[in-house]
Amino acid sequence: MLSNDSPSILDAAAVAEEQAFLDAAIAQRERLSARLAAELTVPAEDATGRARQRGLRAQLEELRRATGGLIFGRLDGVDGTVRHVGRIGLRDDDDTADPIVVDWRAPAARPFYTATPVDPQGQARRRHVRTDGPAVTGVDDEPLDGAGAGELVGEGALLAALDERRTGRMSTAFATLQREQDAIIRAEATGPLIVQGGPGTGKTVVALHRVAYLLFTYRQMAERAVLVLGPSPRFLDYIAQVLPALGETAVVAATCDTLIPGETVTRAEPRRLAEIKGRALWQGALERYVRSLLPRPRELKLRWDGEFHPIDADTVAQLITSAVQGRPYHRARTVFAEHLHHALADAVAERRAALLDEMDEGYEDILARFRPEPGDDGRSGSDVDGLMSDEELDDLRDRIATDATIARFVESVWPARDPRTALRTLLTDAALLTRHAPDLTTGDIALITADAEAVGWAPSDIPLLDAITDLLGDPGSPPSPPGSVAERARGQRGWVYGHVVIDEAQELSEMQWQMVLRRCPSRSITAVGDIDQAEAAHRHTGWADAVRSTLGNRWTAAELTICYRTPREVMDLTTPVLRAAGSHNAPPRAVRSSGIPPQTVETGADRLPAVAADTLAMLRQRWSGGTVGVIAPAALIPALTAALGDTPILTAAQSKGLEFDATLLIDPAGITAEPRGHNALYVALTRCTQQLVTLSLR
Ligand SMILES: Nc1ncnc2c1ncn2[C@@H]1O[C@H](COP(=O)(O)OP(=O)(O)OP(=O)(O)O)[C@@H](O)[C@H]1O
Questions:
Q1: Which ligand 1 atom is nearest residue 161's CA?
Q2: Average pLDDT, stretch 189-214?
């Protein structure tokens, strides 16, 4: 029952109550850890025992990691039941009893995120429990049996979390997830889900918590691992600790540039070229090109035991057709070689039978002169009919299959191809490009061939290399690297993941989308992004455009509408920027105000580095213990670097996905002058959680 006592007395009593519960939960965690550790000292005797030990070890790891947030919430049911919610589930010593703490990902925890006074889901009250290590520091209660629903769940706890200083690393948010976020986190994972959300709406939060939810709910997904794709190594570094903190390790984090083991991007490329090479047409072009590498049917003369055995062109054509049947080039080559070995063995066997037949006939003729037999049909009555036994034939095939000369002959007819060389050959040859990619203009082709002479790969080469490697297939079966599922997945280009999460998905080119689909043919994909923040060199202004060539219309859309990061004062500046970017969308609604008006400082170009250094020093002091980000047009970065020392100065594109307590935004006009510059400025403006200072050139 909720009483009308004064809040402070009530709070103190509630804090004491939750402290007692947290103490008990910590003690229970210690007991369970000790029990598991003791069980693990007994060596496993067989495979079943080892599998059990792996399970126990994982449980122990999970318990050890669950330090902060052991409990963060509580639901009081209308029927008097009390349920605590925490970062992991905790059971009593008696394993069959109800958990004393419900894992935030379990169905029983759902009302904690979704119950409202209008739809209380059997709950009378939701309580957020704030903790600092082992100490309860406060509680926020929300009655669920009262009047209308507010927009936010656990507003006090949420705003406290949002007001914290930024450390430069993203943190977990399971204690304060909001309704629209929860709906996406727990959505079905059977097909592609595309989540549109403006800046700071928690897309990254949702994406990462969804990974944890899916791995918890669908245990078999962990056997195939989940791929998390982000826009840059800096971004991956920013989110790096979230999934381990959520207890998830069956995860591979990568950018599109790092998806092929052993291949790295070593050079930048002109924007126009990136756009051309990202288009969907390349998939068909590469398919046609790889098909053109197949051997032409012609008569083949194979030499065996000093004799030539011709295989006529029609038979060779049939062998090629039945070998290809949708197989990758190298796999088809293996099947072709097997068929050719059979055809040669048959030819050798037939030749031998014919020879014996001839010899037989000659022998019979000689015999007939001495011992003519009336009624004889002229055929040999001998049981030696010249046919090879099955064993002899098998043996012959084996010898042919392992013969080095035959292998060389197959190689000369159907050579193995290195995907890198094959791709370079295509990209440097205007005639080949014209033939296989007829939708490219002569101007496009001239750009491509000129650039392809450069050493090393540019970002747009990686999806092309991936596609051609896939079409060619592996010449042999690649060795499986040892290690955890994540290590094995990271080491194999052809690994098929259980789920793929893409952050900043608006940046993906069509060919990068193809690369993602290849890794997840089941299409269990969650893509989050903001089409209005798109800066990449493609022409999409909507999700339907962006994924038409890969997903068609078979995907589900979801939306996030509330901005948690950027204060209202700064979000108010973004509407004209969005309009100038050509967007018809409204910026998301900011949930909080920092009370700090954005400030603009004007300066001449000559004074810019010095003024930037002074302003940065002021901001650093004000936000000491937090983070200040500096964002500038690419052209100004060298001059600014000299003035700002070791402070990283980011382009708007590099700041994508990141956030700072304060942003020093330098020369916004310079940013808008860049291609898709207003989208870039929209990104840059929305990085701060508290304060924005802009330096403009007079
Ligand atoms: N439910 C939540 N509880 C606590 N913090 C949250 C919540 N949702 C979002 N945040 C915080 O809001 C900030 C923005 O979240 P996030 O980076 O996920 O947004 P985003 O939509 O990916 O932004 P952008 O597109 O601008 O990169 C982060 O600091 C994040 O921790």
A1: 4
A2: 94
Q: 690 CA to middle of ligand 1, Å?
A: 14
Cα separation, 296 vs 274, whole angstroms: 34
Contacts of 555 (CB under 8 A, 6+ apart): 191, 192, 193, 194, 547
Backbone torsion region of residue 483, taken as left when φ is above 0, otherwise alpha when ψ lies between -120 and 50, otherwise beta: left
Tell me the longest C-alpha to C-alpha distance in the chain. Answer: 131
107 is in an annotated binding site: no
Report whether 202 belongs to an annotated binding site.
yes
Average pLDDT estimate for 223-251: 89
Q: Which of 142, 196, 152, 207 is nearest to 176 (CA)?
A: 152
Query: With bands split at pLDDT 50, 70 and 90, how would you rate the model's confidence at 645?
Result: confident
Q: Is 561 annotated as a binding residue?
A: no
Distance 665 CA to ligand 1 centre (A): 20
Long-range own/partner contacts, residues 545-550 (CB < 8 A, 24 or more apart)? 546/505, 546/506, 546/508, 546/510, 546/513, 547/192, 547/194, 547/513, 549/280, 549/283, 549/510, 549/513, 550/280, 550/510, 550/513, 550/514, 550/516, 550/517
686 is in an annotated binding site: no
Residue 558 CB contacts under 8 Å (≥ 6 apart), including other chains: 183, 184, 187, 193, 194, 195, 196
Find the 573 Cα to ligand 1 centroid distance in Å.
19
Burial of 357 (0-12, 13-18, 19+ CB in 10 A): middle
| 146 annotated as ligand-binding | no
Burial of 422 (0-12, 13-18, 19+ CB in 10 A): buried
Select from 528, 559, 564 the residue to mutate for testing ligand 1; criterion: most ligand atoms less than 8 Å from CB: 564
The dihedral region occupied by 232, where left means phi > 0, alpha psi between -120 and 50, and beta the remainder, is beta
**Dihedral pair phi/psi, residue 75, rounded to 5°:** -115, 130
**Structure-derived torsion over alpha carbons of residues 548, 551, 555, 560, reported in degrees to the nearest 10:** -60
For residue 130, the SS3 value is: strand
Instruction: Determine contact, residues 67/58, Cβ cutoff 8 Å.
Output: no
DSSP 79: T
pLDDT tens-digit readout, 320-369: 999 999 999 999 999 999 999 998 998 888 888 887 777 766 666 655 55
User: Ligand 1: which residue has its CA nearest to atom 14?
Assistant: 200
Q: What is the pTM of this model?
A: 0.87
Binding pocket residue ranges, ligand 1, CB within 6 Å? 158, 161-162, 170, 173, 176-178, 181, 197, 199-205, 530, 564-565, 657, 659, 686
Task: Ligand 1, residue 171: give the atom nearest the CA.
Answer: 31
Query: Could you tell which of 87, 186, 201, 205 is best to mutate to test the pocket of ligand 1, judged by most ligand atoms within 8 Å of the CB?
Result: 205
Nearest residue CA, atom 10 of ligand 1? 202
d(CA 616, CA 285): 50
DSSP single-letter state for residue 507: G
Residues 6+ apart with CB under 8 A from 476: none
The reply, when asked if residue 203 is annotated as ligand binding, is yes
ipTM over 0.95: yes
Identify the CA nearest to 207 among candidates 239, 233, 245: 239
Rounded to the nearest angstrom, the distance between the alpha carbon of 660 and the centre of ligand 1 is 12
Q: How many CB atoms lie within 10 A of CB 24?
A: 14
Can you tell me the distance from the alpha carbon of 124 to that of 75, in angstroms, rounded to the nearest whole number?
Answer: 8
